[in-house]
Amino acid sequence: MTFPKDFLWGGAVAANQCEGAYDEDGKGLSTQDVTPHGIAGPRTAEPAPDNMKLVGIDFYHRYKEDVKLFAEMGFKVFRTSIAWSRIFPQGDEDTPNEKGLRFYDDLFDECLKYGMEPLVTISHYETPLHLSRTYNGWVNRRMIDFYEKYVRTIFDRYGKKVKYWLTFNEINSVLHEPFLSGGIYTDKEKLSKNDLYQAVHHELVASALATKIAHEMMPEAKVGCMILSMPTYPLTPSPDDVIKVMESTHMNDFFGDVHVRGRYPGYMKRYFRENNIEIQFAPGDEEILKNTVDFVSFSYYMSICDTADPAKRKEGKGNLLGGVPNPYLDASQWGWQIDPKGLRYVLNYYYDRYQKPLFIVENGLGAVDELIRNADGEMTVEDGYRIDYLKQHLLQVEEAIEDGVEVMGYTSWGCIDLVSASTAELKKRYGYIYVDRYDDGTGTLERYRKKSFYWYRDVISTNGAVLHEEE
């Protein structure tokens, strides 16, 4: 078994988790600048000094050093995002911020210098704060116009440098974290289902519109949607549990179905009827939605179970989408259940459903790493646990490819240590590269190659063949 010759090996980051420089060169505030404790924490009125994302790992100033390290590993592709508020600081201006545009010009040029394709997420969990506070984020239809101006600006600027685009990061996560994912300022406990799904509709229309514009402005470009995948297994063989899983899976499949098929599925129309949800379609929305994506990308970290029995519905620790823990699986230090075979399953599931090329754009293990000095006197991390996690998952990707699934590439999450989205911690590390910065704000920001750095370099150079070698 082998990976395709043109398989896109690489790594992924998000601007808000690595760049820092939150107020430099004309950048406006984003929703991330007022969430110092991650998803679960409260919002602050202004950026707080303990918000690790304000500095991140200083990628904004050190990107050349970091891209060179990625090139040393042999990356074919580097996934990153554009900070919307670097381009339009408030989000509703007429004129973009030239210094912000220039930064991404320089970053993409640096990638291309090493033959590394940029894979760019247009909106990755950081709505301009002004749009969130003034318009209540994607609840307001005007967001489509602001987003359109933003995408036209970056497509015009980077169209000859960037071939692969993703419209929204983990778009289905808005159902669970409306402020993080959709910039919706209303507290989620007070947010009505009608407003939430109206915001979803606006995002889906904006995504389809961006796809249409991309195909018009950049005929060679490939545009994908990006979904938070979390395969769900019935807790028991009870038909009630199977139906419960079908219904909960529909809530996530909805987003991919619209992106790929260009229309609302019947099961969501039923859900809207039964929950008294009335989605306002503006004239032309149905036609816009027909602009479907070229590929489907997704994140994969864990699987979950579900059950119709309320007494057994005990949600697992740390899962963004909730879910019941699987008694057959081990968990990471953050309570995320480890299921390599779930990745083969979800690849087959999506390909059977969509018959579109698939791209795994996030996968990895968040863990506490210990920086040590090895026998050669070099600072490193002996992260064999990360190597084992990634190896087991990549072997399942290979199995899916053997099953006939068309997989474009794999960008492991946090290829260099960054600030966690869920907890805003730096001690939760994913990278092949250790960054000397800590949750109390101390550290030199120096970069060190972990053991996994050299392992992943060999995986790429052998196009996966090394995965079959004995330790």
TrEMBL record:
Keyword presence, Hydrolase:
yes
Q: What is this protein called?
A: 6-phospho-beta-glucosidase
Biological processes per GO annotation: carbohydrate catabolic process
Cited InterPro entries: GH, GH_1_N_CS, Glyco_hydro_1, Glyco_hydro_1_AS
Q: Name one GO cellular component term.
A: cytosol
- Organism equals Faecalicatena orotica
Q: Which residues form the active site?
A: 362 (nucleophile)
Task: Report a single Gene Ontology molecular function.
Answer: beta-glucosidase activity
Q: Which UniProt keywords apply?
A: Glycosidase, Hydrolase
- Indicate the family of this protein: Belongs to the glycosyl hydrolase 1 family.
